[in-house]
Amino acid sequence: MALPKCCRATPAVCFKVVGGQDDRGDHRDFEIASEETDKKSVYAADDRVAAREELDYLKSVFEVAVQGDDGEEIRRRVGQRIRELERGVEAMEERAMED
Q: What is the pLDDT of residues 49-69, one digit of tens each?
């Protein structure tokens, strides 16, 4: 898998993938899915699927990025944020199952 353009330049630019945007668009899927799950809206299930897909994509980009020359720095600077997102998505999915 090739890195998106935003991740090819420097490790610092990889924060765009975690914090905002990449070539695929806006990563607000996590926030939207959480809000819709809390509201128990009819869109919540689809939004959770979208958030899971974005997380899986992000993790695959991260794995490619850490194999490069700046892999250790990327792992150090971005890895924790990805783990936090993963725990958040898992917690959101658990909340949905409780209802």
A: 988 988 898 898 889 888 888
Neighbours of 5 (CB within 10 A): 11
R_g (Cα) of the chain, nearest Å: 14
Which CA distances in Å does 61 have to 38, 43, 58, 68?
29, 27, 5, 11
Angle between helices 71-98 and 44-65 (to 10 degrees): 160
Q: Whole-prediction pTM value?
A: 0.69
User: In this structure, are residues 51 and 89 in contact, taking their beta carbons and an 8 Å threshold?
Assistant: yes
Structure tokens at 27: 């990563």
